[in-house]
Amino acid sequence: MSDAPATVLVYSSRPEVREAVRTAVGRRPAPDVGPLTWVECATGEDVVDTVDGGGVDLCVLDGEAQPTGGLALSRQMVVEVADRPAICVLIARQPDRWLAHWSRADGTLALPIDPLTAPQVVAGLLRDRSGRRPVSR
Fold it and tell me: Which of 31, 24, 80 is nearest to 51 (CA)?
């Protein structure tokens, strides 16, 4: 990936979680990635509508969100969206990694968000995604 801009969707029913993700990752998670544009979603419907609109490179989904969890949204996107963005799920406990595996997410981040790990994970997922840019709809 070069310095091409990337759009990252962050989903949580809790605004403090969305802010924590944005703050930990920042606008440029690595010198070769970014700048990032952040799109926030507070409901599962918002996530589906935004992804269906195209142009999203990465979704960071809160597995603890209510009433629609990020793990279920991840699995739904993997099954239903042919040109889906990369997906990272937020998990509350390390033993929940099996749920992330079930959801078919491309990556995970543990809550609370680690500001040293989060940029590395996001940058890695965006680098992997760079070869297949999202379809513009």
Answer: 80
